[in-house]
Amino acid sequence: MHKLSDSDLRSELAKLGDWTVINHKLHREYKFADFIHAFGFMSTSSLSIEKMNHHPEWCNVYNRVTVDLTTHDAGGITSKDIELATLLDANAKKLQ
Fold this sequence. Notes:
This protein has 3 helices and 4 strands. By secondary structure, the protein is of the alpha+beta class. Strands 1-2-4-3 form a 4-stranded antiparallel β-sheet, with helices on one face.
């Protein structure tokens, strides 16, 4: 797994839309109706995350889930992070 080039990362960010790069990590904050929906998002996503064996840095406070993605072994953002961001967006849409 190789770190994405700056141009590849810009291209992928344009496709993702709501994601940014903060501290060399893909970053997004999801907002849900309430705690149950936020926690449901994390629970639902965790099954796919475990299958991918690519775990996010995430935090839940009431109705918000903040996510940061990076591939530590590659020293930055890789296609695996893009794949996980896409999966998380799809799961969030079901609950928002």
